[in-house]
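ARCHIVE CARD
CATEGORY: sequence design from structure
SOURCE FIELD: tokenized fold
FIELD CONTENT:
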């Protein structure tokens, strides 16, 4: 359950710290007071989309929403281990910081991504809003709702089917590519084969071969000059008479004697010895290098021809040897695909037929399970709706066959009749606003119970109801609150009177507009319920409020 909410600089809220209770948390306030701000903040904390600049309070840099969760139901150890999150026992702290350009979510201080928040939200929170009500009315969502109800028993079967269906679609795509390749003309195939032979015939494996050959050619074309320069340099360093090394060795002898008289010269002597050793190495290298140089006209001719060929390939296939190699691989793959396309097409068509048969059988099993659970879910919804003052209601989850798709071979639609004289019709075309609210409450109640979820939020689920129906809704919500935490925005006094915690939202406008949120108890709660009941506080409304709370 959500035990505490802290909000700072969010829309019209300066700073708020609010404790929530288990059971039923009711939110009331005047129309336009900002009751949904609290719900939206919770939604954003759990990964909901935040329009950065719009949710940050004017003249502030960032907004912060922090939710403390008391976890007594869910095993989060594997999830926390996967994401490297430290456990604080039953308490989990979820926060979302929103700046002008970005937002960051943390759990117990560790940064988490949207993928984590999606999994985490499904474990702890379900928010039912007006937007979700609209979605529930659309037939395309009904199969998702049914599958959500059956996920504990049919979830693995659905995953197996979807994996098989994805493989089937991929195979169809591969078949189309093969057929497109096979449709090329003989001239196109011959030209492709010429390109592959031209590239592969050069045996280009090194993307830097042209640079290396160009450097080698420069050396071979200047052998005599290089011999002269390096040879004379060698003799200058190590020649018999008057060489640099000979002079340095004489200097070393002098310094050796001098350092015996003044040890401050020892380091200079040491540096000179190092210089002499280094110069000897240079001398040896120059000697060997000069000796190794030879005129090789045959090698020069080979390199020139090779560079000409490589330049030709670069001009045709991308400007660099790296691009030539990549283009060769691409063309080879295309040619192989064409050459083997005919036999591959026949082989793949056979595999596709087998895969289609496999997923068709899985879809049929899935359909059988759906039909079984559709009857069970329909009965539960009717049972709930009868308690919610729809005694003559009929509710059927209609399942009809359709072409194979990612969900199987079923078209699912919710049908309802709220009057005994009326036949079953699509939910969106029959139910009134009050009836829709009750259908949504029934569905969400059943799903919340089966999901073993901690907290469910109802954003104005009581739209369009009054009187005895309000009492039935209040009783149902109160019963549900015995098993989970409920947070609910309501305009109904009867529903508000059932609260375990009554939260009141008020908008104030002085120099700036602010939303104040407070917990009402005792006389304050009584006054709020009286005002909900009659629009004002008087003896009659107070008496009615007392009766509701006492009842």
């Amino acid at each position: 359950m959500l035990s505490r909410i802290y909000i700072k600089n969010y829309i019209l809220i300066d700073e708020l710290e609010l404790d929530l209770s288990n059971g039923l948390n009711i939110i009331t306030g005047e129309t336009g007071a900002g009751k949904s701000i609290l719900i939206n903040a919770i939604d954003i904390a759990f990964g909901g989309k935040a329009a950065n600049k719009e949710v940050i309070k004017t003249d502030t840099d960032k907004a912060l929403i922090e939710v403390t969760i008391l976890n007594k139901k869910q095993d989060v150890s594997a999830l926390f281990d996967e994401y490297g999150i430290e456990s604080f026992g039953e308490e989990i702290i979820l926060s979302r910081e929103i700046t002008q350009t970005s937002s960051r979510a943390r759990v117990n201080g560790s940064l988490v991504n949207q993928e984590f928040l999606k999994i985490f939200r499904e474990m702890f929170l379900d928010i039912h809003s007006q937007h979700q009500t609209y979605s529930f009315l659309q037939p395309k969502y009904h199969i998702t709702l049914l599958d959500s109800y059956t996920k504990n028993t049919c979830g693995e079967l659905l995953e197996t089917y979807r994996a098989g269906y994805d493989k089937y679609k991929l195979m169809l795509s591969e078949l189309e590519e093969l057929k497109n390749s096979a449709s090329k003309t003989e001239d196109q195939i011959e030209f492709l084969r010429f390109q592959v032979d031209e590239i592969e015939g050069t045996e280009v494996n090194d993307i830097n071969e042209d640079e290396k050959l160009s450097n080698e050619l420069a050396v071979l074309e200047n052998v005599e000059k290089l011999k002269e320069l390096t040879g004379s340099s060698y003799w200058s360093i190590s020649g018999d008479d008057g060489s640099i090394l000979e002079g340095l060795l004489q200097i070393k002898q002098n310094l050796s004697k001098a350092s015996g008289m003044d040890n401050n010269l020892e380091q200079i002597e040491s540096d000179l010895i190092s210089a002499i050793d280094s110069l000897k190495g240079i001398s040896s290298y120059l000697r060997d290098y000069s000796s190794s140089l030879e005129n090789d006209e045959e090698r020069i001719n080979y390199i020139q021809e090779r560079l000409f060929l490589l330049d030709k390939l670069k001009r045709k296939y991308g400007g660099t040897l790296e691009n030539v190699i990549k283009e060769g691989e691409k063309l080879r793959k295309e040619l192989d695909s064409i050459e083997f396309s005919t036999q591959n097409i026949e082989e793949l068509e056979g595999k596709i037929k087998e895969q289609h048969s496999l997923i068709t059988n899985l879809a049929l099993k899935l359909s059988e399970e759906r039909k079984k659970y559709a009857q069970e879910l329909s009965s539960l919804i009717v049972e709930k709706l009868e308690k919610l003052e729809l005694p003559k209601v009929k509710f059927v989850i209609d399942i009809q066959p359709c072409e194979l798709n990612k969900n199987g071979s079923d078209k699912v639609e919710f049908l309802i009749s709220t009057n005994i004289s009326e036949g079953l019709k699509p939910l969106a075309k029959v139910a009134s606003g009050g009836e829709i609210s009750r259908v949504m409450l029934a569905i969400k109640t059943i799903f919340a119970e089966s999901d073993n979820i901690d907290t469910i939020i109802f954003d104005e689920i009581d739209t369009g109801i009054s009187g005895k129906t309000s009492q039935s809704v209040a009783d149902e919500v109160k019963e549900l609150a015995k098993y989970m935490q409920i947070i609910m925005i309501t305009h109904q006094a009867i529903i508000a009177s059932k609260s375990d915690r009554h939260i009141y939202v008020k908008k104030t406008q002085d120099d700036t507009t602010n939303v104040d949120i407070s917990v009402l108890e005792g006389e304050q709660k009584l006054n709020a319920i009286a005002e909900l009941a009659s629009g004002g506080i008087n003896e009659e409304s107070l008496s009615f409020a007392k009766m509701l709370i006492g009842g």
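CARD ANNOTATION: Residues 341-387 form the longest helix (47 residues). The two ends are 27 Å apart (CA to CA).
SHELF: design records, drawer C
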